[in-house]
Amino acid sequence: MRPRRTLVIGLAVVAALSGGATTTAVAGRPASPPSQDSTLRALADRHRLAIGTAIDVDALDDPQYRQIAGTDFSTVTAENVMKWEVLEPVRGQYDWSQAEKFMAFAKSNDQRVRGHVLVWNNQLPAWLTEGVADGSITKTELRGILRNHVKTVAGHFKGRIWQWDVVNEAVTDSFDATDGRIGYKGFWAQNLGPGYVADAFRWAREADPKALLFYNDYNIDAFGDGGPLDKTQFVYDMVRDLRRKGVPIDGVGSQAHLSTRYGNYSAFQLADMHLRFAKLGVATALTEVDVRNLLPETQTGDTVNPLLQAQAYDYAALLQGCLASRQCISYTVWGFDDGRSWTNTWDFGSGPGREALATIRDASYQPKLAYRALQAELAWAGPPLVLPRVTQPPGR
Ligand code: XIL
Fold it and tell me: What is this structure's pTM?
């Protein structure tokens, strides 16, 4: 009996050290039975899954918004106020005020922060893009400017960020791929070449060694045919190569901006993405989930109700896919109320605001079917197949 007992204790220690005991004690029954009144945060805690939302800092002045944002979620992302154009509108003059308002909110609610974003082609300040366009900023100087930005921003928030989106949306889509294959796109690749991606991760690690460093992108929800136009495959190969070179990348964020007008993924396809990235040794996260509906010209209950059901399916399938992998550590929605969603004004190809009703609550903050689907999925998933998330330490 003795050796056996040692073995059992040994296994328990290994399970505890690997960040998630496999016993049902952790992901077992919650203290009280879940109901429609349970918050997403409480339901997700049982899986050690962080559940998050993007925060519109101006909306924090609305008490109802503030209350829901503070209680329903365990992680938050700044929707805009950590972007370069907001942080450094004038060259050399950083303005941290809005970002700090956001950080204070997260702190007061004991929420972990996804930092968004260190390097992106969009929402750059005019002094930077115009300086490069008119030649007053040289390419050599530009690399120094990027290094300085990554170090300054990651350094400023050092120790306060759980996951950083270090590089965002660096590669083309199948529809805008040149030469029939996915490649690097945009301002940074054009001016510095693709090597900036590895540089950015190294600079971020130097500035904040405890943050998990993520590559973040859209249309990487599931693998396609593995060919030259498969964006998920391209990102997979990129991450694999970065890891082989010892570049400090800890995770891949799939934004998951979906629309019910396109074909649905099955939860199996979505799970496969998480499981395959996990095998590379990186965590995954769903970072900007929303599911748009192409609104009919005349909106009635008959036309909108099926859309809301299709939307609920996508929200739930994305969550099932994440729960299938213990390395999928957070599920963040890109805003939680239809009244404020960016989809109300963005043009997704059919005119601004034509694809909307994308969030989990209506414009009066009432939970939609998608919200109930998330609650139910979180409430009833569990061992033996859904196990608590594995705690991720920053890697190399
Ligand atoms: C969006 C914001 O939600 C809008 O308010 C802003 O006008 C444009 O950017 N991918 C990203 C996010 O990584 O930063 C974008 O956020 C949505 C797409």
Answer: 0.92
